[in-house]
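About this split. The held-out portion is used to measure sequence recovery: a designer receives only the structure tokens and must propose an amino acid at every position. Recovery is the fraction of positions where the proposal matches the reference. Here is one held-out target exactly as it appears in the evaluation file.
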């Protein structure tokens, strides 16, 4: 039976769960020159074969040579586009470092208990306000990180969806990247440690 390996694409690196020590280890692609406001992994496109080689070697260092029994459960930023999702899946599934990949945005990993909730997060380029119901994104709104007004996001949160007007919907502020100071009052703050604990035993069937 295939085993799931949790993996997080952060704003500036890739974290892979080492289940032997129950800790996330950082994979850094050598010689990257990321550009402002553009996800760092876009640079992988310029040296795909090289990047896949380094990642496979990195995975071997954690899980040994028999990598074909593992499925990567990739958690991505909430503003990851469909095209970026395709690239991420193709890059890792063709790296030879796993059997398959599954992908999920950060917002969907914030709570296993709540049927519905609102997620607020921030990437390199956007603030993301998202309404989640039954483990699916119902509504998502993006704000340019350079012009975003926190008070506007808070106001929009109350009218993001009709469900919110008639139900007590919790708000989770995803502080995984330690960049949510202006949104702390919006709801329950999720620290990096809490977020990693939430996905450390993630079931790939739920992605």
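Reference sequence for scoring:
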């Amino acid at each position: 039976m295939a085993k799931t390996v949790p993996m997080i694409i952060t704003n500036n690196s890739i974290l892979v769960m080492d289940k032997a020590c129950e800790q996330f280890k950082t994979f850094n692609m050598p010689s990257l020159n990321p550009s402002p406001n553009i996800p760092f992994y876009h640079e992988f496109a310029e040296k795909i074969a090289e990047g896949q080689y380094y990642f496979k070697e990195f995975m071997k260092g954690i899980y040994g040579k028999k990598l074909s029994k593992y499925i990567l459960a990739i958690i991505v930023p909430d503003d990851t586009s469909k095209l970026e999702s395709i690239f991420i899946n193709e890059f890792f599934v063709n790296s030879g470092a796993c059997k398959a990949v599954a992908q999920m945005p950060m917002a969907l990993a914030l709570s296993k208990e709540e049927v519905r909730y609102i997620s607020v997060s921030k990437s390199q380029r956007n603030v993301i306000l998202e309404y989640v119901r039954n483990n699916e994104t119902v509504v998502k709104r993006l704000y340019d990180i350079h012009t975003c007004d926190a008070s506007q996001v808070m106001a929009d949160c109350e009218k993001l969806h009709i469900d919110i007007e008639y139900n007590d919907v919790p708000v989770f502020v995803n502080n995984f990247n330690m960049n949510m100071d202006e949104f702390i009052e919006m709801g329950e703050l999720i620290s990096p440690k809490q977020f990693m604990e939430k996905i450390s035993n993630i079931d790939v069937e739920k992605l």
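Annotator remark: The longest helix spans residues 48-63.
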